[in-house]
Specification:
Blueprint lengths: L2 H5 L12 E8 L5 H12 L2 E4 H10 L6 H9 L6 H17 L2 E2 L5 E2 L7 E6 L5 H10 L5 E6 L2 H15 L6 H23 L4 E5 L4 H15 L2 H4 L1
Parallel strand pairs: 1-5, 1-6, 2-5, 6-7
Antiparallel strand pairs: 3-4
Helix pairs in contact: 2-9, 3-4, 3-5, 7-8
Length: 229
């Protein structure tokens, strides 16, 4: 996790936006971000990186120096320090980009040509300073996919999910803390990118198939054919 040591001082992105396409995927807890990301991966071959999943995996990793810190923040609906989250995301991106390319015949080929990557970063950035630091130190994002859904519907979905998910934050008290955190910290991120015409807002109250159709239509307007062909 040596990446953390130089994140604060780094002012040049480690990846080029010519080689790496990043979409930030935001929406309140229960808006359906994960479901839509799964479909985008299956249809277009994006790599899906969930900031929450990476943090939960890290907190459960034996001997993780950040495990207790992450656990405390998640349990209390707080945002984990950005250097930890950004370092986990950058490491996951490197892992994807370092994988051998797969040829048309399905065989893996090692090549000197730099591999291009396209990533959905789900549930990040959660705060404006995270957005600014990620674009400064890792790579600028193309835009934010923002799934907009009323709190009442999101709470209903999360409580239903909590019956089987086993996640300790899928309970009414934690859910409401997460809603408050999202409104107070993540909506300024959406506003920041919206002022730059870098937000695609999707109504997420519909059934998943309808939401995905809207998402596909918006991506077709915004991304080149080699990304969404």
């Amino acid at each position: 996790m040596s990446t953390i040591d130089n994140l604060k001082d780094r002012t040049t992105p480690v990846f080029s936006s010519d080689d790496v396409t990043v979409l930030f995927v935001l929406g309140g807890p229960g808006a359906g971000k994960g479901t839509q990301c799964e479909r985008l991966v299956a249809r277009y071959g994006f790599a899906h990186l969930s900031a929450g999943d990476l943090l939960r995996a890290e907190q459960n990793r034996p001997d993780s120096e950040f495990g207790d810190l992450i656990r405390h923040h998640i349990r209390n609906g707080l945002i984990v320090p950005m250097e930890v989250t950004i370092a986990l995301l950058e490491a996951a991106m490197r892992q994807v980009l370092d994988e051998p390319a797969t040829s048309a015949s399905g065989s893996q080929e090692k090549t000197k040509k730099k591999k291009k990557g396209k990533f959905l970063i789900d549930g990040f950035p959660r705060k404006l300073d995270q957005a600014i630091k990620f674009e400064e130190a890792v790579v600028p994002a193309q835009f934010v996919l923002f799934y907009d859904c009323p709190e009442e519907e999101m709470e209903r979905r999360l409580l239903e999910r909590g019956k089987t998910s086993g996640r300790e934050d899928d309970n009414a008290e934690s859910i409401r803390k997460r809603f408050r955190t999202f409104v107070e910290t993540s909506m300024p991120v959406v506003d920041y990118f919206e002022k730059q015409d870098r937000v695609v807002k999707i109504d997420a109250t519909s059934e998943p198939d309808q939401v995905f159709a809207k998402t596909q239509a918006e991506l077709a307007k915004r991304l080149s054919d080699d990304v969404v062909s």
